[in-house]
Specification:
- It is a single chain.
- The protein has 435 residues and is α/β, with parallel strands linked by helices.
- It folds into 2 domains: 1-324, 3-Layer(aba) Sandwich (Rossmann fold), CATH 3.40.50; 332-434, GMP Synthetase, Chain A, domain 3.
- It is 32% helix and 24% strand.
- It is built from 12 helices and 19 strands.
- Strands 4-3-5-6-7-8-9-13-12-11-10 form an 11-stranded mixed sheet. The chain has a 4-stranded mixed sheet with strand order 18-17-16-19. The chain has a two-stranded antiparallel ribbon with strand order 1-2.
- Helix 6 links the parallel strand 3 (130-133) and strand 4.
- Helix 5 (106-122) packs across helix 6.
- The longest helix has 22 residues, at 14-35.
- The protein is globular.
- It starts with 6 loop residues before the first helix and ends with a helix.
- The structure holds 5'-O-[hydroxy(phenylacetyl)phosphoryl]adenosine.
- The site of 5'-O-[hydroxy(phenylacetyl)phosphoryl]adenosine has 21 residues, from helix 6, strand 7, strand 8 and strand 12.
Length: 435
């Protein structure tokens, strides 16, 4: 028996979905035009009025919205309703410049939690489950989003937040948690810590994990699934569009269904802004369809992926997005070559290394330097320096064949690279400091 949280909409026909989207987009565009002067100005500059938008097909007439717009409009410029109608804010970590702050009405929160509930049910969750939420609680959307979804499904919710790994493990064991929600890097760390404490994968009661908020490769999925004895599901979202649950994976584990009754997705060429046909790789753009507090039309996510409407064996009909293959702004250009951190992770894990690594890029004497520090697994250790050096050379060759450029490899002892409890910091690009 297949399980869905909202079966009618999750398995609706394409025609039904399109009908819902067409009805909602007309209302949403008018709502934004009437309530958000910042976006109304952008529309007027482009010579578009709400009457021009009769269906989602017409969406391409609308101007894009970017993170720069969000910064410029900070804090209230994109607010869609009176503050008195809003019940919460969330915010991005905002390492540079101003933060992005998103506003929610109670209806927005309800819909967001439904989206997260769909993800939990797709991962096999029911009201019999114990759901351990170790995404950060607070301004970050991860904790609250999955927490709300877990309540809606009726799981016993463990509101752990991130960190304090010993306590996480104690509750996981004592409360017999069955579903784990956290970043994939933290899941890997929990798996590693469990093994160190002498637990085998079958000693815990976990059956599934719902991991997202950062890029992770298929190789990393395999490692986590083995170390925890679970099935690992991807979940995607961003603060601007509410948080986790914009898209989620089903049992097929071949991409994430986008909740198309609430978000309309487009793929564009990041350089020209041209809308690309289905199956093309490009930048993901979202339009909210029924937001009140923080409605966004044609928001450029900078995440690079591919959309597919191929029939899914789970019975869900909503379009699927591949795992984001990196962000257009986290692609590094090193000595003229485009390098994505996900390519590096794929090579490391395929070659038998751990997911504990750091990429350091710098510029010396006008030339880019490119170093990868990676922990070797205990079994790989040899006290002969030449053995370790030859392993570094092998890994360098494997990197060169994937990337077209050979980094300097530094094999470092287990436990020397700092573990992450939230989003892992994989890249240190010191060139930015010199610019
Ligand atoms: O990371 C929301 C979230 C929380 C998603 C918990 C999933 C689970 P932000 O902090 O605003 O929001 O970061 C959003 O993180 O544009 C992607 O670049 C990246 N990201 C999110 N999910 C994934 C994923 C949350 N599953 C940014 N795979 C997005 C790869 C992801 N990258």
């Amino acid at each position: 028996m297949k399980h869905y949280y909202q079966p009618e909409i999750e398995t609706a026909s394409r025609e039904e979905i399109l009908k819902i989207q067409n009805e909602k987009i007309v209302k949403q565009v008018k709502y934004v035009y009437d309530h958000v002067p910042y976006y109304r100005n952008l529309m007027e500059e482009k010579g578009v009025s709400p009457e021009d938008i009769k269906s989602v097909e017409d969406i391409r007439k609308l101007p894009f919205l970017t993170k720069d717009d969000l910064r410029e409009a900070y804090p209230y410029g994109l607010l869609g309703t009176d503050l008195k109608n809003c019940v919460r804010i969330h915010s991005t970590s905002g390492t540079t410049g101003k933060r992005v702050v998103a506003f929610y009405t109670q209806k927005d929160i309800d819909i967001w939690e439904d989206c997260c509930a769909r993800a939990i049910v797709a991962a096999g969750g029911t009201d019999e489950d114990v759901c351990q939420v170790c995404y950060g609680y607070g301004l970050f959307t991860g904790g609250s989003g999955l927490h709300g979804g877990s309540h809606k499904v009726g799981c016993l919710t463990l509101p752990m937040s991130s960190g304090n790994t010993d306590r996480q493990i104690q509750f996981m064991m004592d409360m017999q948690a069955t579903i784990l929600c956290c970043t994939p890097s933290y899941a890997a760390f929990i798996g590693e810590t469990l093994a160190e404490k002498g637990y085998k994968p079958e000693d815990n009661k976990l059956k599934a994990g719902i991991f997202g908020a950062e890029p992770w490769t298929e190789e990393m999925r395999k490692g986590i699934e083995e170390s925890l004895g679970i099935k690992a599901y991807d979940i995607y979202g961003l603060t601007e569009t509410s948080g986790p649950g914009v898209a989620f994976e089903c049992e097929e584990q071949t991409g994430m269904h986008i909740n198309e009754d609430h978000f309309y997705a487009e793929i564009i060429d990041p350089d020209t802004g041209e809308v690309l046909p289905e199956g093309s790789k490009g930048e993901l753009v979202f339009t909210s369809l029924d937001k009140e507090g923080f409605p966004l039309l044609r928001y450029r996510t900078k995440d690079i992926c591919i959309l597919s409407r191929k029939k899914c064996s789970c019975g869900r009909t909503h379009v699927k997005m591949t795992k984001p293959m990196g962000r257009s702004d986290d692609m590094m250009i090193i000595r003229g070559v485009n390098v994505f951190p996900s390519q590096i992770e794929t090579v490391l894990l395929k070659e038998g290394y751990t997911p504990n690594y750091q990429i350091v890029v710098d510029r010396k004497n006008n030339t880019d330097t490119f170093d990868i520090f990676v922990e070797f697994p205990k079994e790989m250790f040899s006290d002969k320096i030449s053995d370790m050096q030859s392993k570094e050379q092998d890994l360098k060759a494997a990197m060169r064949s994937m990337l077209g450029i050979g980094p300097k490899i530094h094999l470092v002892a287990p436990k020397t690279i700092q573990r992450s409890e939230g989003k892992a910091v994989r890249v240190i690009d010191k060139r930015k400091l010199h610019d």
